[in-house]
Design a protein that fits this description.
Elements (H helix, E strand, L loop, with lengths): L7 H12 L15 H4 L11 H15 L31
Length: 95
């Protein structure tokens, strides 16, 4: 799977996840980034932190034996913005 992690949003989300451990070191806790704040077109999994959102997506793909492009358009592998353009392509549903 060839995924580019160049998006500013994704870098920000990754940094936020890494800094989440700062609370354990005595630093003040920051509000977790929510899925809808980082990703476009989140319709069902709103209100959960980014790390839980990504874990949920991983659970879905592992449970179904799918990779990302089984539900998302193939172009999404090279461009994070494409993930928001439509899902469940096998079922004919488009966002």
């Amino acid at each position: 799977m060839n995924v580019k992690y160049g998006s500013k949003r994704m870098r920000g989300a990754a940094i936020a996840c890494l800094l989440g451990g700062a609370a354990a070191t005595g630093q003040p806790a920051q509000k977790a980034l929510m899925a809808e704040d980082v990703f476009k077109n989140v319709q069902v999994l709103k209100g959960i932190p980014v790390n839980q959102f990504m874990e949920t997506m991983s659970f879905f793909s592992a449970s179904l034996g799918y990779n990302c492009t089984n539900c998302h358009v193939a172009e999404s592998l090279g461009n994070w913005e494409k993930y928001a353009e439509g899902t469940c392509r096998r079922n004919g549903w488009r966002a």
